[in-house]
Amino acid sequence: MIEVKQLIKKFGDNTVLAGINFHVNQGEVVAIIGPSGSGKSTLLRCLNLLEKPQSGIITIGDVVLNAKHYSRQDEHHLRHQSAMVFQHYNLFKNKTALANITEALVVAQKWGKKEAHQEGLRLLEQVGLLAQANQYPITLSGGQQQRVAIARALAVKPKVLLFDEPTSALDPEKVHEVLQVIHKLANNNTTMVIVTHEMEFAKQVADRVIFMAEGHIVEEGSAIDVLERPKQPQTQRFLRQLSETIEFEI
C-alpha cells in the first residue's frame, strides 16, 4: 500500500531523512519509534507532502510521486490517498463533533448535507461517540476529541491513516480509548502508520515496528522482536534508557 524509495529531506544544511526506504502492506499497522529529532514525524509528514522532500519516490496505492518533479495535480492525487490524525486533534473549536466530520464531506467532496450528516453519525457511532454528536470540542475529554479526529480522518475514505503521536497529549487513563478504536480499525484491515513514543502502545497495536535514529531506519521487524529482542545497539540503548529509573537528589 505504501512504498518509499531513497527519500531525502533537508532543512537547510541539516539532513533529517537520509535516503529512507520502507514499505507498508495492505492492512498492516506499522509503528515508527525513535528518539526526538530522529525524523519520525518528518517522514510521516512527507508521505502527504505536509513537508516537501528534496528527492525520492513515494507510492501510496496506485499513485506514484517523484519528489524532484511533480505537478500540483500529482500532489493533489497523493494527498487524497491518506488522512492524518494529529497529536493535538486540530478540531474546529466552533463546530460540533458532527460538524467537524461533515465539513470536509460537504465542502471538499461536495456531498449533500443530509448524506454527510448520516455518514457523520455512522462514523461517530463507529468510534463510540454517537451520544456526543452535538457537543463542542471544549466539552469533550482529550480521548474523545482524538476519537472525533479519527472519525474525521475516516470520513474521506483514505487508503492509509497516518497518526502523529496520537496519544502523547492524553492523560494515561484516556489512552485506552484511542487504543480500542485503532484496534478496531486494524481488525477491519485498515492500513495505518503510527509515530509514537509509547512503547506499550506500539507493542499492542503494531504488526511491525520501525526504529529510527539520526534520519536513518536502524532496525525493523515484528513489534515483539524490535521491542523485546532488539538486535542493533542503538535500538538496545534507546529502549534501555526508556526503562531506566531516574533518581533525584534533593
From TrEMBL:
Keywords: ATP-binding, Cell membrane, Membrane, Nucleotide-binding, Transport
CDD domains for the chain: ABC_HisP_GlnQ
PROSITE patterns the UniProt entry points to: ABC_TRANSPORTER_1 (PS00211), ABC_TRANSPORTER_2 (PS50893)
Pfam families per record: ABC_tran (PF00005)
SUPFAM superfamilies in UniProt: P-loop containing nucleoside triphosphate hydrolases
Domain ABC transporter: 2-239
UniProt protein name: Amino acid ABC transporter ATP-binding protein
Entry annotated with the keyword Cell membrane: yes
Cellular localisation: Cell inner membrane
Family membership noted in the UniProt record: Belongs to the ABC transporter superfamily.
Domain of life: Bacteria
UniProt keyword annotation of Ion transport present: no
Organism: Orbus sasakiae
SMART domains documented for this protein: AAA (SM00382)
Single Gene Ontology MF annotation: ATP binding
Membrane topology: Peripheral membrane protein
